[in-house]
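Record format v2
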Amino acid sequence: MCDDWRPTAPIENIRLRAALLAKTRQFFAARDVLEVETPLLSSATVSDPHLKSFSTHYNGPGLPSGTPLYLQTSPEAAMKRLLAAGSGSIYQICKAFRDGESGARHNPEFTMLEWYRVGFDHVALMSEVEALVQLLLEIDSEFERLSYQSVFEHHLGLNPHRASLDALKACASNAGISVGLDELIIDRDGWLDLLMSHLIEPQLGLTVPTFIYDYPESQAALAKIRAGAPPLAERFELYITGVELANGYNELCDSREFQRRFECDTLHRKASGDFVPDINRRLRAALDAGMPESAGVALGFDRLLMAAVGRDSIEDVGIFTVANA
Amino acid sequence: MATYSTNEFRGGLKLMIDGDPCSIIENEFVKPGKGQAFCRVKLRNLKSGKVYERTYKSGESVEAADVMDTDMQFLYSDGEQWHFMEPASFEQFAVSETAMADTAKWLKGQEECVVTLWNGVPLSVAAPNFVELAVTDTDPGVRGDTSGGGGKPATLETGAVVRVPLFVNIDDLLKVDTRTGEYVSRVKN
């Protein structure tokens, strides 16, 4: 007897998804941002230490038999190749795939809205994210903007850039977080993630949505790093009612720095015994050719819908989740 | 040593934590988009009953607790220990007062219970979901009141006290839900 064939989301939420997708497209049309579609399957994949790709094999004409292809964890690489090719500002609404991620707020396959604005920096892009989210969630109030350092200081009384590893561990332990097994397998950024996800995130965006900006250099991913003491990643995230909704960068355009960060990721992956992908040669070549100065952001569309209907599970908005896909 | 990966975590799974058997109550997957994935687990210590939280790095493995739920028949209590029998093997198990906890108040004999064994030693006992017990003491019944509104305390033959509707009398046989401790209905005797 198979009784889990029904959609997990109620029909009214499925209708709301369609309505918000239509509004999103109108928003970008009015701003002259071009809608694009890039491949979900690619021979290259992301090197971020904490993202896992699904892979499959292609068998047929056009490529050597059994060529591995990766389901994209985001359309970032392909969209940046378009920017370098002169597309101007672009957006995409597509599925993104991440292995190992399933829970109330995660599904291994989810809908992502990703966009790039040529000539914007991350600060200007935050304002555009704010305008879109205000429109879609019918919010009038201005969003809050806090630095990564200030939320750590405010909620935990420590400076995330200077605190020692022992101070981070002590902070977790004082807050009653008990870490199972070997604490050593979590690095400094892992402890920051733990404090952020367990103690700070639940407090963010409760009255109005909150942007967090200026991340530690070690969490730059592909954001520009601004020199200073300490150097800071020009990266932001948006939180609504304790849920991370979007992640944006003032985009790194330098191909040598891209190569260097790939090598860092590779070391990290090797140390953890994880799969080590090849560098995305075509993205590196596109950066070499010259990607215009841009800011880009990825927004989890399912989570936006969760906020719109006031529910805290992705099942309430995803038509089918991995458990009954 | 059997282990479970965090990917296998679900409610009811039994783990060894700091040398004690524990049962998972809730498991939450937490992951900042670009950051480390964690499993935030709420656990009940099966020896002390205490509830606490643990955080694991996603993908870690944790030692499994050799905990088994076994159907057994309650035989008798000698005042210090409660004696149960595994019907297939006729093997008998003595359960301490601590492990019996609140369950003792629902049992008079012959009931089919679920005894949780850890390394072969009884850790806890769950009474049948519903038991039928006679009322030994309560205020006199109010004739005609079948609404169940209001209510009064009644002492049952095992000593348990439950809230019952006003029409219930001494010697009435009642059906009680042991999970909530609530009166369900009167049983014709």
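The interface with chain B takes residues 48, 50-51, 100-106, 176-181, 185-186, 189-190, 192-194, 196-198, 201, 219, 221, 237, 244, 247, 298, 300 of chain A (CB under 8 Å).
The longest helix of chain A spans residues 11-30.
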